[in-house]
Structure formats: C-alpha cells, structure tokens
Specification:
The complex is a heterodimer of chains A (479) and B (101).
Chain A lengths: L2 H11 L4 H19 L2 E4 L1 H16 L11 E5 L26 H8 L3 E6 L33 H8 L5 E6 L5 H7 L2 E4 L19 E6 L2 H11 L29 E5 H4 L6 H16 L3 E5 L7 H16 L17 H12 L2 H14 L5 H24 L2 E5 L15 H5 L6 H6 L3 E8 L5 E8 L4 H14 L7
Parallel strand pairs in A: 2-3, 2-4, 7-8, 7-9
Antiparallel strand pairs in A: 1-3, 4-6, 5-6, 5-10, 9-11, 10-11
Helix pairs in contact in A: 2-3, 10-12, 10-13
Chain B lengths: L8 H10 L6 H17 L1 H4 L30 H6 L4 E2 L2 E2 L9
Antiparallel strand pairs in B: 1-2
Helix pairs in contact in B: 1-2
The chains are: A alpha/beta (479), B mainly alpha (101).
C-alpha cells in the first residue's frame, strides 16, 4: 500500500497524525505551486482545522472514515460553502456558494482534508488549462508544457504530490486527458453514478465528476466514496454503487478486450502513443485476456457531434450568468445592455466561442442540420458501442493522441485543440465509464495514458483491467 | 443532404444578440472565421442521411423522480442575497426594464 490508502490506514490506526500529513503537503504546495499554479486557492487554515478534527476523532476512539486525513484537491467548479468558487472565470470571481457540492460533503464525511481549489480551463472548456482567467497551470513532469485540461489543476496537484487525491469533472475528456498528460490515473465514471449537485454545469447530458490518484487502487477508493444515488440530483442513477475496491485484484483471465481500430488510428495519434496501446494490449493478453481488434465505426463522427451538442447545452447553461444574482455586474442603462456588457467583460474567448457556436447550432434554420443531426449521430455511437460490448468486456484506445504539448502550441487554433479529445469524447456521448492509466512514455520521455473503456456500470471490469495494466506498465506506472 | 451555407459576419452579429454577448468588432471578425472552421469540420455530420435514426438527447433512460413532500431547510436567503451584485428589499435589483413612468 502507498498513497491515499496508506495515509488513511495510518491515520485511522493512530500511527500518523492527520495534522502532520497536511503540514507535509502544505509545505510541498508552498515550495512549488508558485511555479505550477495548480491551485486558484490554497485552503491552508481550513485544512489544518479539518485535520485537527480528524485527529480528535481518532483520539476519541471514533473512525473518521475511509479517507481519514487524506489531503484532496477540488476542481474549482465544485461548490464549497462559503469558500470562493470561480470556475477560473472573471464572471464568478469572489463568489462564495451558499452550499457544498454533494461530492464535497461525501469526501469530508469520509475524513478527507480539502487543501485547495484547483485551476481549470474557464467553465471546464479546454484541453490545456490555458483558458483559465487566473493563468495557466504548468505540467509538473515538464513545466514548459501544458498539463492538459480542463481539469489541469487537479491532475497537476496529484502529479506534483500536493495531494494524493483530487476531484475533477469530465465532459469530453477533461479528467482522462490531463491524467494522461501528467502521468496519473483519471476516471470518468458511468453517467449518473456520481451526483452532480453543486457541480457548476457545462453540458448536462455529458458532465461527470470523477477521481484522480497516483494509483488505480487509490482511484477506486475515492470512487467508492463519491458514487451512489443522491436525492439532490434528479439525473443521478437510483441504483446503488457496486464497490470497485474489493474486486480490484481479480485479474483479467478470460476477459475479452477489444482494441478500437478507429481510435488507435484516429487523426493525429503519435506513433509512440499507438505503440503504448498495443503494448498494453499485449500485457493484458499475457495476463490471460483474449485480445482482438474491433471496429466502432461511428466514433469517427464523435468529435463533430460533440462540438455541436456540448456548446448547445453550454449556451443554455451559461445563460444564468447575467449579472443579476451572483458574480460580476457591469452596469448599463437597461437590463439587456447590462447583461451583454457583463457577459462580454466576464467571459474569456473560448467560453464566448462555445456560447456562440451553441447558440448558432440551436438557432432557427440550423437546428435540424446541426444540433438535431448531432443527436442522431449520438444514437449511432450508442448502437455501435452496444454491438462492441456484445463481444468484448472492455475496450482499449489512446487517451490523448499526443503527449503533453508546449504552451501556445494549439492556443490559436480551436480545432487543433478540440482534436485533443478525439479518443475520449465517444464515451461521454454514450454515457459509459472510461479511465486513463499511465503506460510508459512517448516523445521526449513524457507520460502516455492508455484509455480503458467499459459498458455502463461495468466499472468493476474496467478497474480490473486498469489494475493489470498498472502492474505491467513500463517503469512501474504512475508518477 | 445539403450542408448549410457558410456562416457570415451578419449571422455572427445576430447570434451575439441572441446570446446577449456585447462583442467588439474585433471579436466579431475573429469569431466568424473560427466558427466557420468548426462548422466546416461538422459538415461530415451535417451531410449524413439519418432520416431513419431517432435522436438521443441523454445517455440514460431517465424517469421523473418523485420524493415525499416534506418540509426541509433550503439554502439561506441572506447568504444568497449577500452574493448578488445589487439588492433592495430582499430582492435582486436590476436596471430598469420598462420605460420611465
């Protein structure tokens, strides 16, 4: 054991004090977050108080829970009661939510210690964290490169050792792609399995909250804490979560694993990334899985469909930032002028681009050709995955077509940036679980992530595959 | 099936009004090209013949969710109002929306 599970075990047994654990992590943050900028806000005083409360419970003979004393970073689009929550946007700067997100409550109830609010691309729109209004996050593995996005701060916080666990959100790859680029584990659970109450909405038919960790087992630990029905989220599944941690070591003997042709050969996939996926498949075969190639033909339309559906939903969700109830207001002589001035001053370029794209895709005369068509493509993708999962237990692909890229490399070309998500988007459209596991290195010695996908609620199978990959990874897996 | 005509600057201005975004001339210019590039990529989807395919709006079959009608605390009104840019008499204050009386 190491990482989060070790800390929790030691704190629960009284062998280690939560306060000492948190001080050690705050020291690392103080030493290096000036360079990395993983956090919009470090919660040093709050973390010390929480850790002291955990230690007091242990001293009193209580069990603080499965995350006892474990430092955790929270993506800054998760509401924290009375603590600024910005979505890395000027339009929400200084806003203090009147309630906690359900996941924030659940990790606190399990004994975790929130150490900070992690940076992101503004409103989770981006693949590099360069779109943050508060400056980009740097990749701890190579600070001249992006950490991926949109959950770049959450990924970097774990990769830099600022916290062994973090929470992110994934609409088109925003957990998995930064996990791959930073060399950590990142999980997008089945749609509906983790409550989104208190997650600031981007695209509601796609958004999911999920864990980052330095190991597959730590990610399982955190998922088992946050998953399960929530009466505050009407889209949360009423089915009880089946815990993943107990089945982690069941191996892959007899499992059928498919390598997705269209994603391994997708536009822009680097040769080292493709080679890592094939090496991962060989490792699974050596561990007793049956591996074959599989075609999921309609995923080639996933990127186009996503960049109509997600902006359309975003244009509706972000209509609430109107200068009336919270956040920024830029005054004007009448309501419409105030709304427009506020939104022009408060939103950054990528958010405006997506609002415009989505409003256009939904507007009279274009709805059927764009948004309506994209929804039908979504049906094709769901059908093609259903066919693949009739034969296979899990599917493999690259997570990101490339390793971490330098700052500015794609910032001036929205379409090139969008292609970063070509392999991760299809599972969001289908609502399935998927996760990224570090598997060796690619160009310039930078980490490569392999994506493991599974059918809806098949997280136990997905994690068993991931666990075998972690053990077989060249150089020993996660950072 | 025909793909829609290319987006124009006039379209972009119209959409900005719909979206209540007060964009500058420079923003309107750059967005016209950027939106055309993304919509150009989406031409592959727009060109598909999917007349017989039903749309999917949501990945899971959802039913309406009901719960017992029990009184419980909501968010604190004072906290909510404290976060607003302008408040008057426990309400959100906004600029005039009708002509002066």
């Amino acid at each position: 054991m190491s990482g989060a599970r070790q800390i929790a075990a030691d704190v629960r047994s009284g062998a280690v004090r939560a306060r000492d654990v948190v001080e050690e992590h705050l020291e690392r943050i103080a030493a290096r977050d000036g360079e990395i900028n993983a956090f919009n806000l470090v919660l040093a005083d709050e973390a010390r108080a929480t850790a002291d409360a955990v230690d007091a419970r242990v001293a009193a003979g209580d069990d603080p829970g499965p995350l006892a004393g474990v430092p955790i970073a929270l993506k800054d689009n998760l509401c924290t009661h009375g603590i600024p929550t910005t979505c890395s946007s000027r339009i929400l700067e200084g806003w203090r939510p009147p309630y906690d997100a359900t996941v924030v409550q659940r990790v606190a109830a399990a004994g975790a210690v929130a150490v900070g609010k992690a940076n992101l691309d503004e409103f989770a729109m981006g693949s590099s964290t360069e779109n943050s209004a508060f400056g980009p996050t740097r990749n701890p593995r190579d600070p001249s490169r992006v950490p991926g996005g949109s959950s770049g701060g959450s990924a970097a916080a774990v990769a830099a050792g600022f916290a062994p666990l973090s929470l992110g959100s994934d609409t088109g790859g925003s957990i998995r792609q930064p996990a791959a680029l930073c060399g950590v584990v990142g999980v997008k659970p089945t749609y509906g399995s983790v409550s989104r109450s208190g997650l600031i909405a981007f695209a509601s038919s796609l958004d999911q909250i999920g864990p980052f960790a330095t190991s597959v087992a730590d990610a399982a630990l955190l998922l088992d804490v946050i998953a399960g029905p929530d009466p505050l989220d009407s889209t949360s599944s009423p089915e009880a979560h089946v815990p993943v941690l107990p089945v982690l070591d069941q191996g892959v003997a007899g499992l059928r694993i498919g390598i997705v042709d269209e994603l391994v050969d997708a536009e822009g996939v680097e040769p080292e990334v493709r080679a890592a996926v094939l090496a991962a498949a060989a490792a699974l075969e050596a561990a007793g899985a049956v591996v074959d190639r599989v075609s999921v033909p309609s995923v080639v339309y996933g990127l186009s469909a996503y960049y109509l559906i997600a902006p359309a939903e975003a244009s509706s969700n972000l209509a609430r930032y109107d200068g009336v109830r919270y956040g920024l207001r830029v005054d004007g002589p009448d309501l419409a002028t105030m709304n427009a001035r506020t939104r022009d001053a408060g939103f950054g370029p990528e958010v405006k681009r997506r609002i415009m794209l989505g409003t256009y895709a939904l507007s009279a005369g274009y709805y059927d050709a764009y948004y309506g068509k994209a929804q039908k493509v979504r049906t094709l993708i769901v059908r093609d995955f259903a066919r693949a999962y009739g034969t296979f237990d899990a599917l493999l692909s690259p997570t990101s077509p490339t390793v971490a890229f330098p700052f500015g490399a794609k910032a001036d070309n929205p379409l090139a940036m969008y292609l970063s998500d070509v392999c991760t988007i299809p599972t969001n459209l289908a609502g399935h679980p998927a996760m990224s596991v570090p598997f060796g290195t690619g160009a310039d010695g930078l980490p490569v992530g392999v994506q493991v996908m599974a059918d809806a609620v098949q997280e136990p199978v997905m994690f068993r595959v991931a666990q075998v990959l972690e053990a077989a990874a060249p150089g020993g897996g996660a950072a | 099936m025909d793909t829609p005509a290319a987006i124009t600057r006039a379209d972009v201005e119209h959409v900005a009004r719909l979206a209540r975004l007060g964009l500058t001339d420079a923003e309107l210019d750059s967005l016209t090209g950027e939106l055309a590039a993304v919509l150009g990529h989406a031409a592959d989807v727009a060109a598909l013949d999917l007349a017989d395919v039903a749309p999917t709006a949501h990945p899971l079959p959802l039913r309406n969710v009901l719960r017992p009608d029990v009184v419980r605390p909501g968010v604190d009104r004072g906290e909510v109002l404290a976060a607003a840019p302008a408040v008057e008499d426990d309400r959100f204050r906004v600029p005039r929306i009708l002509d002066a009386p």
